[in-house]
Design brief:
binds heme C, mainly alpha
Length: about 260
């Protein structure tokens, strides 16, 4: 890119413009595919046998999601975009509703969902929940032995003295999620995980009440959030791992979103 004189301020502005341009282009492209998002209209008259098949499958309509969430929603463990493939249907459905109804904030996601009905959001959620795709391989977490202990303690034991249950108590013994609506957390990008826990702390993300994750996120220190996110992001899961079956045991703390 051509350098413009004017010192640091000008460079920062250029950087900002480039970021904004990138965001707009992505958004415009995804909105252009929105027409393709609308469910197929029922045909009013019987089409003659010779009509070529119109390819309007869910997979094709969901191409609007691929540029951010990766082919078939599989994403990777770097960057910011979360994997959506294979997460429980109930969880994905709640998140699409949350973006549409303002409990979660992201420009692209709000635009994409704002005119969609619950029925259609449910169809989208079911489609992505049904995809069984390989997870990215485990990677080095780069944590010190002390930080690794902190992360593993939180994940497997929690911090009972501060009313923080083990993450596994809700997210599943292997952290692959649990039906009907508990998400798996492994292989999500660390920046995404840190962003979500931070958003719960500041009120930018909310789940239906009682919002157990808001309470848990507020009890974690920023250092704990950083190490647990890096640990979770670096783990992998064998191909074919699906969320755990629903448990008959109550959750250690009541969660609005987790049950339905
Ligand atoms: C322009 C990029 C972009 C496009 C296109 C896009 N998303 Fe997203 N999506 C995001 C980002 C960024 C987030 C995380 C936002 C946040 O920080 O809360 C997200 C979050 C989500 C989540 C929540 C995931 C979780 O684990 O909580 C779901 C579900 C989702 N998107 C579904 C979709 C579907 C379905 C489509 C296509 C109809 C789509 N997205 C298209 C960028 C995009
Ligand atoms: C009492 C049950 C419970 C415990 C314990 C729990 N979680 Fe959660 N967590 C939930 C529920 C329910 C959701 C889904 C909330 C929603 O619908 O938005 C969730 C969602 C999340 C998400 C968002 C995932 C995404 O894809 O956006 C993160 C990150 C998370 N939890 C981290 C943790 C960590 C780290 C721990 C352990 C320190 C933990 N959770 C312990 C219930 C729990």
């Amino acid at each position: 890119m051509k350098r413009v004189s004017g010192g640091q301020g000008a460079e920062a502005r250029l950087q900002q413009q480039a970021t904004r341009f990138f965001a707009h282009t992505l958004l415009a492209a995804s909105l252009a595919t929105l027409t393709a998002l609308t469910p197929a209209q029922p045909t009013t008259s019987a089409a003659p046998q010779t009509t070529p098949t119109v390819h309007n499958t869910m997979a094709q309509r969901m191409q609007a999601c691929v540029m951010c969430h990766g082919q078939q929603g599989r994403a990777t463990n770097t960057g910011y975009f979360p994997r959506i493939a294979g997460k429980p249907e109930g969880y994905l459905f709640h998140q699409l509703q949350n973006f549409r109804d303002g409990r979660r904030r992201n420009r692209a996601m709000s635009h994409l969902t704002q005119h969609l009905s619950d029925d259609y959001l449910r169809d989208i959620a079911r489609y992505f929940a049904g995809l069984d795709l390989p997870y990215p391989p485990a990677q080095a977490h780069g944590l010190s032995p002390q930080q690794q202990r902190t992360a593993e303690q939180l994940v497997f034991q929690g911090a009972p003295e501060r009313d923080i249950p083990a993450c596994t108590a809700c997210h599943g013994r292997s952290m692959a999620g649990r039906l009907p609506a508990m998400p798996g957390l492994l292989t999500l990008p660390a920046d995404y995980l840190i962003g979500q826990l931070g958003a719960w702390r500041t009120g930018l993300r909310a789940a239906t009440a009682p919002d157990c994750m808001a309470d848990i996120a507020k009890r974690l220190t920023p250092e704990e959030i950083s190490v647990v996110a890096r640990w979770l992001s670096a783990q992998s899961l064998p191909t074919g791992t699906t969320p755990e079956a629903a448990s008959t045991q109550p959750l250690p703390v009541d969660c609005g979103g987790g049950h339905r």
